[in-house]
Amino acid sequence: MKHAVLTAAILMSVGVAVAAPAPVEDIAGGASNDRVARLERMLKAKQAAEFETQQRLDTLQQEVLDLRGLTEQQSYQINQILQRQRQLYDDIAKLSSAKSVANTATPVASETTSSLGETASYEQAVNLVLKQRQYDEAIPAFRNFIKQYPSSTYAANANYWLGQLLYNKGEFAEATQAFDTVVKQFKDSNKRGDSLVKLGMIAQKQSDNATAKRYYQQVINEYANSAAARIATQQLAGI
């Protein structure tokens, strides 16, 4: 009896073992393929995220460069305005000094009168630009001043003003002549670097990139670390 019961128990145990085998992975690759596919999806997602991040970084970098260029340009323009203001203050101071000398009625009255006429003529032309905003009228005013006082201490600035006014009107041939006068005849003028930049811009507008590059490089070489050199560098990079 005990032997029969034991035999029955053994047979039942074997049956259960046969009916419920332990789970094993499919050696053909079922579960393994799922893991590989999942890893591939994760890798692709990571690569896509990295690519998107790089695109954002590139976009941000370009925006920074654009903003830097805009800042340089604005800095140059502000510097130009400040220079014109300083020049105007100097002109007014010289005019006041000339008037004071004229009122003394010394033996050199004729020379003082000549100096007063020179300063007053220049101041009148400048005021047409800065105060009255009569740009078309300022062009002949500066031309007359340059013709009458070609060796004046204001001659370099007068030529630069004339060149700028003509440049704004798109009269590039005459503007080139005015800026070129500053470059060649007034090498110590603080307007020379700016004049070279404007000559480069005119050449660039006329699709003469080789000449434009030459002017910009000259500014960078001769006026390093100046506002004019920064603008020249920016313009050069855009060609």
From TrEMBL:
Pfam families: TolA_bind_tri, TPR_16, TPR_6. Mediates coordination of peptidoglycan synthesis and outer membrane constriction during cell division. InterPro entries: CpoB, CpoB_C, TPR-like_helical_dom_sf, TPR_rpt, YbgF_tri. This is Cell division coordinator CpoB. Belongs to the CpoB family. It comes from the Bacteria. Keywords: Cell cycle, Cell division, Periplasm, Signal. SUPFAM superfamilies: TPR-like. Residues 33-104 form the YbgF trimerisation domain. It is found in: Periplasm. Residues 1-19 form the signal peptide.
